[in-house]
Specification:
Distance between the termini: 19 Å
Bound molecules: guanosine-5'-diphosphate, magnesium ion
Shape: elongated
Number of strands: 8
Strand content: 5-15%
Strand order of the largest sheet: 3-2-4-1-5-6-7-8
Number of helices: 12
Order of helices and strands: HHHHHEHEHEHEHEHEHEEH
Radius of gyration: 21 Å
Largest sheet: 8 strands, mixed
Length: about 300
């Protein structure tokens, strides 16, 4: 499947809901009335595009109507263009350090898809002929270490791990040592789930970053927050709060395949200005795609 086909399949639920709603509105009242404007607004909000993006699209629809009348009024095309424009400054590429290993820390609350995403990232770069390594730094749950090891086996990627209850920072330290010794291109560190409100857990994460930063200048080079796209505006709030405690370099929004509220990606980018690096569109290794604004906008609104 090509990249666009994947975007489209993964975002099918959001696409179906949005296009269905917008078409229904036009069919019922071909003229743009105050009522239909309100309905458009409602449909966009329901897809979690956020107030700012919704306001922008509604204004563009109004302007098109005032300048071109109903003839030029293609709601889907207008929305698509506005979203594309809005997301065009997004820089999805991961940092790659010039010489040596790029260290990527994967953080977030429980269950958002950190472990799966760490494995998918390893797979993604491995497919590009990069050498990769995984670190099992969720030492809070024995199952989490096993889960990552299983992925490692499946993908043929080595996993640096210690036992349940081990100090996460020292596992990370060992993993960085191993990655440097092997001259790996990327090390992905899977960390334990934590709520941004739990001060001690955030401190533990800060410590992990501090330890590997001392070991290798600039590490972690990327700190990526994994957000569950199906949790809607909650995800936005998580990102805002997490970013205060641990400076993030980017976001990964997962589980977009399971929701009709995929617009959350736009709301997050617009509100936080943090780049969306990848999106998760399913549970398979290939279901992680680098974020592409143009394809994303098309996948939501193309007929
Ligand atoms: N449908 C779907 N499921 C996902 C995606 N990413 C992760 N998951 C699932 O979400 C669940 C939690 O993932 P996990 O990686 O264990 O989350 P963690 O607690 O943050 O490490 C698992 O069942 C994953 O298969 C995604 O993009 N789409
Ligand atoms: Mg996990």
């Amino acid at each position: 499947m090509g990249l666009f086909a994947k975007f489209k399949a993964g975002l099918a639920k959001t696409h179906a809901k949005l296009t269905h709603e917008l078409k229904r509105i036009v069919t019922r009242s071909p003229k743009l009335t105050a009522e239909s404007l309100e309905e458009i607004e409602h449909a966009l909000i329901a897809a979690d595009l956020g107030i700012a993006m919704t306001t922008q699209i509604v204004a563009a629809v109004k302007l098109a109507y005032e300048t071109q009348g109903t003839a030029g009024l293609d709601y889907l095309a207008i929305a698509r263009a506005e979203i594309e424009k809005s997301l065009s400054s997004n820089q999805p590429d991961l940092i790659k350090v010039a010489h040596g290993t790029t260290i990527v820390s994967i953080v977030g609350v429980n269950g958002t898809g950190k472990t799966t995403t760490s494995a998918k990232l390893a797979h993604y770069f491995q497919a590009q002929q990069k050498s990769v390594l995984l670190a099992a730094c969720d030492t809070f749950r024995a199952a989490a270490i096993e889960q990552l090891k299983l992925w490692g086996k499946r993908l043929e990627v080595d996993v640096i791990a210690s036992g349940y209850g081990a100090d996460a920072a020292s596992v990370a330290h060992d993993a960085v040592t191993a990655a440097l010794a092997r001259k790996a291109d990327y090390l992905f560190i899977d960390t334990a789930g934590r709520l941004h409100t739990k001060h001690n857990l955030m401190q533990e994460l800060q410590k992990l970053h501090r330890v590997i930063g001392k070991q290798l200048a600039g590490a972690p080079h990327e700190v990526l927050l994994v957000l569950d796209g199906s949790t809607g505006m909650n995800a936005l709030n998580q990102a805002r709060e997490f970013h205060k405690a641990v400076p993030l370099t980017g976001l990964i929004v997962t589980k977009l395949d399971g929701t009709s509220k995929g617009g959350i990606v736009v709301a997050i980018q617009k509100e936080l200005g943090l780049p969306i690096k990848f999106i998760g569109l399913g549970e398979q290794p290939d279901d992680l795609q680098p974020f592409d604004a143009k394809q994303f906008a098309a996948a939501l609104f193309e007929e």
